[in-house]
Amino acid sequence: MTASTRTHRRVLLIRHGQTEWSLSDRHTGRTDIALTAKGEHDAAALQGVTDRLGMFDPYVIVSPRRRAQRTAELAGLVADEVSDLVAEWDYGDYEGLTRVQIHADHDPGWAIWTSGAPQGESVQQMTQRVDEAVRVVDARLETSDVVIVSHGHLSRSFICRFLGWPIAQGANIDLRPAGTAMLADVAGDRRMTHLVGPEGASLSTTAL
Q1: What are 18-25's contacts with CB under 8 Å, separation 24+?
Q2: What's the CA dihedral at 208, 206, 12, 80 to 10 degrees?
Q3: Is residue 206 in a domain?
């Protein structure tokens, strides 16, 4: 198979492995935090995932955060590009807080998908950034499949914009630490073809 004969152009999204903050549901954007022992184990279980999925000459884009960098390393993936475009949502004043804390102490109706983050990224800003990431990936898909090792909200946002959905639809996608989601472009028809995570555990697409 050559780039010109490919009928399926695919993007594999990998969320970083578990951290202490993801375990306790704390919003982790700019904070550079390490993986837990489970996070490292689950990331290592991803070794060979691109071969198992039969990806074509995968080009690997990784977030600059060390939890994503370490996940890629343990999965045996070498970054072709480290990009701020796939860094996690900037949670601003809500960095390190859980949604329960935010509802109790700040805004009982808050959701990142509709409200954005005070002193962080708005929904519009996040949409613009993810749209740029989609444009970069679209160009790369002309010659290779793409792997993005990133974060929960970023990956769910990317899925939405790649498929042409409003970013708020990300609330209805459940991508767990060390989970993967596959997107495919088949002659211009875009779809999500699987959602798995951690390796070997199937997930439904329900809201968190």
Answers
A1: 18/42, 18/177, 18/178, 19/67, 19/177, 21/96, 22/152, 22/177, 24/98, 25/98, 25/99, 25/100
A2: -10
A3: no
Residue 64, number of CB atoms within 10 A of its CB: 13
Closest CA to 93 of 107, 82, 72, 81: 107
10-residue block means of pLDDT along the chain (208 residues)?
74 98 96 96 97 96 98 98 98 96 96 96 98 98 97 98 97 95 94 82 38
- Positions marked catalytic: 16, 88
Q: Which two tokens stand for residue 148?
A: 């993005």
Instruction: Output the domain CATH number for residue 137.
Output: 3.40.50.1240
* Chain center to CA of 65: 12
Per the CB < 8 A criterion, the answer to whether 71 and 43 are in contact is yes
